[in-house]
Specification:
- The protein contains 15 helices and 13 strands.
- The strands form two sheets. Strands 7-6-8-9-10-11-13-12 form an eight-stranded mixed sheet, with helices on both faces.
- α10 crosses α11.
- It folds into two domains: 119 residues, Rossmann fold, CATH 3.40.50.300; 230 residues, Winged helix-like DNA-binding domain superfamily/Winged helix DNA-binding domain (Arc Repressor Mutant, subunit A).
């Protein structure tokens, strides 16, 4: 199925290098190769660092001189890849376009102010959302996204059993291969326990100290292991919104999974995770393609009033959003925040008989709303 970034990546390749980053098995390699067939490229060269022969070609810079699209897959596994790539880009022939795919580590260019600045665009490829599935046989199939998640292989599997077999292999690979390949972990069993605890905690604020007591490790170790899971696009954090960003970071985050199918909980927890991922994909797209900084937070007061999500643009809240599985009365907390701040608010319901507006707050059907959530 066509990915929404396809044309945007083709456009950006005419200007700079493109980094295509995102979760493992989200479709980065497929999309990169597909882009090679869609543009006006006369010679596409695909090289994967995991292949010994390919690695040798990369290290010796021996790809064909006529190449006009060079795809470097898993380049971050090459020692000194940053300086290598900078040298290749700065000395490349005019016709050469470069597309690099890999894990979240490629995104560190943004934070480090590396000398690569100004030479690349970043595109984040996240799992399918309802908005991206429009026009496909899976359009409006919110139940499939809730139960199977948005990764291509389980979503498109012929049976639930095939999807479950994929997830078993995927989960094993995350801990035993990806984590250990990314960074040294002294206690892989503790990492596995933390991973399992997080799967059961979706939708709730997470205390590092509480988890530390459960696994008999220090809070610093727990935070480090969670940082690794986030860096590998396995989980993402949603922090409370605050005008004081530093203060917000210190508050307990909520943690969600890029693979909704990993969530262990009731229907409400999986639904909330699916909505969180859809909103994250929306704010990432807005940030990447409009240049305006968007972020996803949640709302919470010291008195315990809480709303699931808050979309923020350039530091200012744009939308408050509460999720509900079945049609219920209007959330008191959502009403409180809407009345206090006057920000547009939506109560998003999975099973809703009739959309309506109550006290200036829209009660929307989740399928119709998320299907139209484009950037």
């Amino acid at each position: 199925m066509k990915r929404v970034q396809e044309q945007l990546i083709l456009q950006d390749l005419q200007k700079k290098m493109v980094f295509l980053v995102g979760p493992r098995q989200a479709g980065k390699t497929w999309l990169a190769k597909h882009i090679g067939t869609q543009g006006s490229f006369s010679m596409v060269t695909y090289l994967n660092v995991d292949n010994i022969d390919h690695r040798r070609v990369i290290q010796r810079i021996e790809w064909p001189q006529q190449t006009d699209l060079l795809i470097l897959d898993e380049l971050h596994k090459l020692k000194g890849w940053k300086n290598f790539l900078k040298g290749v880009y700065d000395t490349k022939p005019e016709q050469l376009h470069i597309l690099v795919t890999g894990s979240a580590r490629l995104n560190t260019f943004r934070q480090t102010g590396d000398s690569m600045a100004g030479r690349f665009f970043v595109h984040r490829l996240l799992p399918f959302s309802l908005a991206e599935l429009r026009g496909t046989p899976y359009a409006n199939d919110i139940d499939a996204l809730i139960q199977r998640g948005g990764f291509p292989e389980p979503l498109l599997a012929q049976t639930d059993e095939e999807a479950q077999r994929w997830r078993k292999q995927y989960t094993d690979g995350l801990i035993r291969e990806d984590v250990l390949d990314f960074e040294r972990v002294n206690d892989i069993q503790t990492m596995q326990i933390i991973f399992d605890l997080l799967r059961r905690s979706v939708g709730s604020s997470v205390s590092y100290s509480s988890i530390a007591r459960d696994v008999q490790a220090s809070p610093a170790t727990v935070k480090r292991y969670i940082d690794i899971l986030e860096a590998l696009y396995i989980i993402f954090r949603v922090t409370p919104y605050s005008k004081n960003i530093a203060r917000s970071i210190l508050k307990e985050p909520k943690i969600y999974f890029y693979d909704t199918g990993l969530v262990e909980g009731d229907n409400g927890a999986r639904f909330e995770n699916m909505v969180a991922l859809s909103l994250l994909k929306y704010v990432c797209g807005k940030t990447d393609y409009t240049g305006k900084l968007h972020a996803l937070h949640y709302l919470r007061t010291k008195q315990g009033q809480e709303v699931d999500f808050c979309i923020v643009r350039n530091g200012e809240p744009q939308l408050f959003l509460e999720t509900k599985w079945k049609e219920k009365n209007l959330s008191r907390s959502l009403h409180y925040f809407h009345k206090k701040y006057g920000v547009p608010s939506i109560q998003l319901v999975k099973e809703l008989a009739q959309e309506r507006s109550v006290g200036g707050i829209d009660i929307r059907n989740a399928t119709s709303y998320l299907s139209g959530l484009e950037y």
